[in-house]
Design goal:
With 376 residues, the protein is an alpha/beta fold. The protein is 41% helix and 14% strand. It has two domains: 183 residues, Class I glutamine amidotransferase (GATase) domain (Rossmann fold, 3-Layer(aba) Sandwich); 117 residues, Homeodomain-like (Arc Repressor Mutant, subunit A), CATH 1.10.10. β12 and β13 form a beta hairpin.
């Protein structure tokens, strides 16, 4: 039996097992957490086509800069390209310097073509060759606004969903029937990213930031640009009818929605009135009060506007355009068109051909007379 020896401090056992002081315990070295290697920045290339839209370009590149600043890291890098390495003039007349000409051999994670005209990539085999080479190397590709035209001409969007500006959807769909066009503000289909332009480029890049670095950072970037909501891929490009027209009457909005959805096979005004639970006279009073036009006149203008877009953006024969917009004959179509725009559909096509021969890229408004939206 062990005996106790008393002394200063606490009693300690003699001849038995002594307790070790904490300092005498065996030291187990702590294991430091592994140091994560710095991730290389994600490199985005922008190929700028002359007359590219500055708004869409800035909306795409600025979120990358903001993400870097907020994280105090180089999460993203970017390189700007032109066909020959020279500065590129935007549609607002501002020249933008670039880093290099196309095919400089730099490694890119994503290449976006930024364009504002439908001739992007036309008669440019060197651009198509570069885009195909990037695709073979695994680079993601895409387009902003009308940039998808260049990617499509290289054969790199076939079978994919594609977004581009709503004004050019009909022309693009006719020219590239193997591509599934959509009116969404942007589309991510595998390693293809396309957007309709304008501020939709901001939403597309915010989604890229969220994919790579988390939703919280994307939200922070969005707030930096006073962008209160990150829109989803399926958000519409155009404003809701009530906002676009400045009208809050639900029945009038419903009637106009029916007209816009049935421009190829026009419905009788009395049928539309019945569908919104109004009499024809009540519907006429609403149109007169809010739009200063009769329902029939407003409906006609909608169909003519659609016909004009088809004349300017597609190669469909004039008779096919007339039928597609609900006109019984080419002569009836021509009469209505001349009354509203001041010239015939054939004159519109002729002026467009002249502009194309002279290489003009301005909006096709030279022949456009003020719309005569009078009450019928």
């Amino acid at each position: 039996m062990s005996r106790i020896v008393r002394g200063r401090g606490k009693a300690a056992p003699v001849g038995g097992t002594r307790r070790r002081s904490p300092s005498a315990r065996t030291h187990v070295p702590s294991i430091a957490p592994p140091i994560r290697a710095a991730r290389p920045p994600y490199v985005v290339g922008f190929y700028l086509v002359p007359q590219f839209p500055m708004m869409a370009f800035a909306s795409a590149i600025e979120p990358l800069r903001s993400a870097n600043r907020l994280r105090a890291e180089r999460l993203f890098d970017w390189r700007l390209y032109s066909r020959d390495g020279a500065p590129v003039r935007a549609s607002n007349g501002v020249d933008i310097a670039v880093h290099a000409a196309l095919d400089d051999g730099a490694a890119l994670d994503l290449l976006l073509v930024c364009a504002g005209t439908r001739d992007a990539g036309a008669d440019d085999p060197q651009l198509a060759k570069w885009l195909r080479a990037l695709a073979r190397r695994g680079t993601a590709l895409g387009g902003i606004s009308l940039g998808p035209y260049a990617v499509a001409r290289a054969g790199l969007l076939d079978g994919r969903r594609c977004a581009l500006h709503w004004e050019s959807l009909a022309a693009f769909a006719e020219q590239f029937p193997r591509i599934r066009t959509t009116s969404d503000i942007f589309v991510v289909d595998g390693n293809r990213r396309t957007c309709s332009g304008g501020t939709a480029a901001l939403d597309m890049m915010l989604h890229l930031i969220a994919e790579r670095d988390g939703r919280a950072l994307a939200n922070d970037v969005s707030e930096q640009f006073i962008h209160p909501r990150i829109r989803g891929t399926q958000d519409p490009q155009r404003m809701a009818l009530h906002a676009r027209l400045g009208v809050a009457n639900d029945k009038l909005i419903a009637a106009i929605g029916m007209m816009e959805g049935a421009s190829d096979e026009p419905r009788a005004v009395h049928e539309i009135a019945a569908d919104v639970q109004l009499s024809p006279r009540q519907l006429e009073r609403l149109f007169a009060k809010y739009l200063r036009a009769s329902p029939s006149r407003y409906y006609l203008k909608l169909r003519l506007d659609r016909a004009r877009t088809m004349l300017l953006q597609t190669t469909k024969p004039i008779l096919d355009v007339a039928v597609a917009c609900g006109f019984a004959s080419a002569s009836h179509f021509s009469r209505c068109y001349r009354e509203v725009y001041g010239h015939r559909p054939s004159d519109e096509r002729g002026a467009l051909a002249v502009r194309r021969r002279h290489g003009e890229r301005a909006a096709p408004d030279a022949l456009r007379a003020p719309s005569r939206l009078r009450r019928a």
